[in-house]
Amino acid sequence: MLNIEQTNINNIDVPLSVSWLLSQCMEFRGKQDLYSKTRPETLKSLLYKTVIQSVESSNRIEGITIERKRLAPLLNGEIKPLERPDKELLGYKRALDDIYKSDFSETLGSKFILHLHQMTCPESGHAGAYKQIDNEIIEFDEAGKKKIRFIPVSAKDTPEMMDRLCSGFDKSTLPPLLKIATFVFDFLCVHPFLDGNGRISRLLTTYLLLKEGFVVSRYISLERLVEERKEEYYAVLYECSQDWHEGKNEIVPWWSFFLSIVKEAYKEFDNKVSDQDVTSPKTDLIRREALSFVREFTVAEISAKLPDISIPLIKKTLSALQKEGKLKQSGQGRGSKWKVV
């Protein structure tokens, strides 16, 4: 049963943690207009990086990959698509472009969702069409044994269910972020396509956030953040899909996960935009903290002491100190360590 249609969903006792996440997201949202006026060049750079990260991560979650060195040239039109992965990665990029260009005046409906699928899965053989046969969400254990995680809506009932889902979104009185989260969750439970459901759900997340005025999905890749927490993502989906058909499933854990992704994106967005000034107080804090160590230290240790500062800015500042001859790095990746010279 669609959560977004249930009238009693508005009567759920929202945990304090969910309310706190909502308020934090709304607080970050309030800074958007200021950034668009004061950091236009920064936003332009973020948009370019976000498109590449989103295309790569959303497809990689589904096992669709190409050589990293070919990704940017492919998306920039510098090389032609060859195999199916190329075409699907390029299709996802075109779908994002369409979303970014939208004026969001059109009512959400099957026509738009099928259009996204047509672009994103051009090689599937059923591009732009709802499933014609029933499907299952399955997984394989370590021994390779098949296990059914969830049985979605039947093919016969899918068109009607998708119309109801879109109508339910328009009629819902939930706060915008909870309304979007609920729509995306129900979409994944309906699982309307034979292939590409995860990718379309992430495109719809971006579209609906922008439609409701949350521009962070344009400048920070939500797909990348989901990929970084992929195991948690699937675990929460599994937990909340139990008894969905009977209308007895839990939705709050999914709300918490969804809001935490949006909050994380906004926090990163805020850090990236506000940290452009190399003489910022945040940069000074990192420099002082790093140079105070009398032993080797890691980026994680700096982050633990300065939790409100983004990892990218910490790394950028440490690299600047290295160029100044004040720090020395040993090792690469997560295991790398730094030492005051």
Helix and strand topology:
Elements: H1 16-29, H2 32-38, H3 40-61, H4 68-75, H5 84-101, H6 110-120, E1 137-140, E2 146-150, H7 158-171, H8 176-190, H9 197-211, H10 216-219, H11 222-228, H12 230-241, H13 252-274, H14 281-291, H15 299-305, H16 311-323, E3 327-330, E4 337-340
Antiparallel strand pairs: 1-2, 3-4
Helix pairs in contact: 1-13, 3-5, 3-11, 5-6, 5-9, 6-9, 7-8, 8-9, 8-13, 12-13, 14-16
Description:
The protein has 16 helices and four strands. It is mainly alpha-helical and 341 residues long. Helix 8 crosses helix 13. The chain starts with 15 loop residues before the first helix and ends with a strand.
Key structural traits:
341 residues, mainly alpha, Fic-like fold, Arc Repressor Mutant, subunit A, two-stranded antiparallel sheet, 4 strands, globular
Ends: how far apart?
62 Å
Strand content: under 5%
Describe the biggest sheet?
Answer: 2 strands, antiparallel
Q: Over the alpha carbons, how many angstroms does the gyration radius reach?
A: 22 Å
CATH fourth-tier homologous superfamily of the largest domain: Fido-like domain
Give a summary of the structure in a few sentences.
This protein is mostly helical.
